[in-house]
Write a structure and sequence with these properties.
The structure holds two protein chains of two kinds. By secondary structure, chain A is mainly alpha-helical. Chain A is built from 29 helices and eleven strands. In chain A, the strands form five sheets. A three-stranded antiparallel beta sheet of chain A has the order 3-4-11. In chain A, strands 1-2 form a two-stranded antiparallel sheet. In chain A, α4 packs antiparallel against α6, α5 runs antiparallel to α7 and α11 crosses α12. Chain A is flat and about 110 Å long. Helix content of chain B is 33%, strand content 10%. By secondary structure, chain B is an alpha/beta fold. Chain B is globular. Chain B has one domain: Alkaline Phosphatase, subunit A. Chain B starts with 6 loop residues before the first helix and ends in a 24-residue tail after the last helix. A seven-stranded mixed beta sheet of chain B has the order 3-6-1-9-10-2-11, with helices on both faces. In chain B, strands 4-5 form a two-stranded antiparallel ribbon. Classes of the chains: A mainly alpha, B alpha/beta.
Amino acid sequence: MELLGEFLQDPAYRHVVLNHFPITGLLVAWVVLVAGLVFRRRETSRVGLALVAATAASALFVMSAGEAAYPAVYDALDGTGREWLDRHAALAGTWGRTLYLTLALALGALAASVWRPAWQAPSSIAVALAAAVSLAATAAIADAGGKVRHAAFRSGTHDHAVAAGGPAALRRLNPAQYRAAIAAAFGGDIEVTGRFEPQARRSGLLAVGNAQVTVSAAGFEGYEALARNVAEQIVAPERRDRLVCRPVSESGPDDQCTEAFVREAGSRLLRRALEDSDVRPRVAAASRTAEEMGDFYAGLELAALSLLVAPDFLFRVERTEPVPGAPGEARLTDDTLASRLSYFLWSAGPDEALRAAAAAGELSAADTLARHVDRLLDSPRYETGVRAFFDDLLHLADVEALQKDLVRFPTFSQAVARDAREQTLRLVVEHLATEERDYRELFTTRRSFMTRTLGPLYRVPVRSREWEAMDFPEGHPRAGLLSHASLLMLHAHPGRSSPTLRGEFLRESLLCETVPPAPADVEFALFNNDQSTEHRTARDRLEVHSTTPSCRGCHQLTDPIGLGLEQFDGIGRHRTTENEAPIDESGELDGQRFADHVELGAAFRDHPRLASCLVENLYKYAVGRDIVESERRMVDNIADEFAAAGFRLRAALRAIALSAGFRTAPPPSTGDAPPAASAAGES
Amino acid sequence: MTIPINRREFLRGSVAGAAVTVGLPYLEIFLNSNGNALASGAPLPRRFGTWFFGCGMNPDRWAPVKEGADFELPPELAPISPVREHLSVLSGFSVLLAGEANQVHYTGIVGTLTGEAPARMDAADLPTFDVLIADQIGTATRFRSLEMSATGRPEHSYSRRNATSLNPAEPSPLALYNRVFGPGFADPNAAEFTPDPRVLLRRSALSVVADDRRRMEAQLGVADRARLDQYFTSLRQLERQLELSLTKPPPLEACRVPEAPPELADSLEVGHVVESHRLMSQVLAMALACDQTRVFNMVFSDAASSLHTAGSSDTHHTLTHEEPNDPELGYQPRATAFVMRTMEAWTEFVQALATVPEGDGTLLDNCLVMCHSESSDANTHSVSGLPVILAGRAGGRVQPGVHVRGVGESTARVALTMQQVMGLPVASFGVRQNATSRPVSEVLA
């Protein structure tokens, strides 16, 4: 009883307990009233009128409890739930008034039955009509309310089931994925040489951009040239033993052998079981060509080429299907889910076992899905997946395309840039995948990897010719990811550092904040160049940003943390002075003060957005688009799980792979929403 | 530099070519696709191109004062003096913002090329007008259009069908050369013509994929279907290219297969970029003379120019913002030096086209090239009074040699003029405030 009392203190609970009266109660009352009228029983009618009055009155309590419960319930809901709640409240506000009318009429009719018996019948008919309208109104209100109900009263935060995934996508393979697909289908010795269409970064990730781009005419020429080159190698005489079969004769068609080849290579390249419509036209065209050219392998080459230039090879086509037993809901097909999983965790297509699991329908079942996710996470290929994600998130592919002024930076070379990228990736893989450490400690770790090429830039001796693991001693200026040459040289100008570019990158990529682009009409005459005698350090030069109101808004986001890395020059060499003036790195990151870049790294480690931002980026990377409203709460919950698991990357990846948003999609009719574009930063 | 070729040789080439191709299957469908227009005395092809440079100029030192013919060249136009007879200067034309924010180093270029001031970065979904021109005049050549960037970056290209379908640039003279004159190129003036039998194999492979289009589309939503459409458009372009390579190209008097250019180091140092641009211009001139394409887009420097001089910590872009105005001179001397280098490079480009004889005149006479930038005064990111220079006569449709001032007028008028000159049946261009139906008639012949 005590428990019930406690529950009734809660307006939401009161609302739910009482809300049956205005609906089922009113229905019973109406039936009694109408029966009384039909069978001309005055007493029955009177009971009916009293019941109508009582149930209509109960609605007043229900509505007031509902109003009181609104704020708390609203907060507890996800986006879709909120929409239904607002609709429920709006309906109650408008149509709930009919209950007042019904109540007033019923009381009047009751009074009439006592004092003016002649009026009882007509007034009762009026009440019956009003009650019918009220019934329809309460039914509509309750319907909307019922759709709110699911998520509102659940305790605990691990509520993935409420989320519905955003739209599935058409996702172009990136160059590394293309190479991996060729190697998986035909062997690692096939050379893939040629040009790929440039990628586009959207919402901070190439993975999102790849779900928005297409293929230009020049790009297609490039893909076809790549494909021709691969196809020629596949059927080259020295490799023919490795093909799935040998033809009856090399000088003419052999449709059976061609079909075997198309089925085998095709299911790997297209990442799904082939249909007859995939196979037949290819076998037929190969047959014609083999006939005309008198060469079986020319036909086979054609078949291979036609697979390699197929849009469903170059693009991952994500397909959806209705969820059995849940009308209006959609989920990814097993084939699509297999691809999404393996590209997410391995940055490569599904292997034989995963394709078999998809074919057996094991991925759309939650219990068996977990088993497969764990297998992928336990595989050595998991490291490749971790590498690929951070390569994308940290823009590391751009490092190798960097150009620096060689007069100012004679130690810079493409080899330095290449090793700088690899250095960062090695640390990330060891820290997060191999040793499964706390993600946040990536920003303070003294661990590093070095080569002879990088040694001079870092001013450390390197003995071996191979990569060497090492630990910087306490007190050394290098600590954590922020002191990596790769990131420092990337977010800089060709001839010098850029606190603004560095700050912008850290805010946007690591803390998921948006730095607005510069206003167009800036008074730039206030700036001076870096040879100026009065403004010797970047801090002096950027002073203008913090004293000019139109600049300050955005630059206070970027400059203070960028200036915290100023002891690293445009290629990431350590320095303590600029133009002979000492460099002061001190500043503040969202309330946490730091004296230098080492402390800045610690401030990043402790930043409340650091880990949740990583989860958001992982999720966007996994699904190839921005997070949609119906997934927001789910992603927040995954971030909580990540924290609870000690910020081990694996926990976040596992939670994402098993989440409802990752596996589901909107029903086809609403799946066409264009992807949200994001503002690209400008320097 | 005229090449002595008599008419009989022309005919022999054609006949020999036909004799070779008759033996091949599938030929019927190509016969009507490319007649011997030139050998039969049809007019020379008309070409269109854009030439882009980043970070604008100093309007006071760049825009001529006098309108019409015989205008004097202000200091920043002095470099174009050797080729001024081929040029018209358009000053004062602007991208009208129509209430949108000026997306710095972006609105100016997208606005000029699409006729719409974009609401935000990556938001413009309209095609750039060079693509519209290529759809009209670029379908008979191997390449619908060629894009190139002297900066060495494929992504430094502003030609696109929409925000997600960029036409990437050839990043080096050698890459451009290999694309045009590498495998797949047939010398129109060669006596022998042997089509590559593998072309048939490639065509069959493409047609298997093309036939699958309907099934693919059925699986996709509206936005993705549009992306797939572009994929198949690109595929058809390659099919077209393969078709063309099966027939002997008609001889072209102006065509001379150039030597392969040297491989250049990848650098944004301005001297490097100038050299890369010079070599690219020469390859492009021959690509046009050999009728491999009729539309091109050359990027000399990117929007928010990343060019720099050796040993300097500043780029052209950072200088425009951070270099103080010289009190004596009244402008930024180091930033302005890049403007001068740019105008010199543009002059070299015009010369590269003007020195190739074609018909009774030069290649340039059969071209129309629009030189433009995303800013006027880059210091303030101004998109008012953008620099525009037109070169060539477009086969006699354009009369160069004038200065037109269009203060307060939209650059969409220039874009409309280009399209009409190239024979597009369009009466208007541009969106909202930039919408116009008035071409710049002063430049027309």
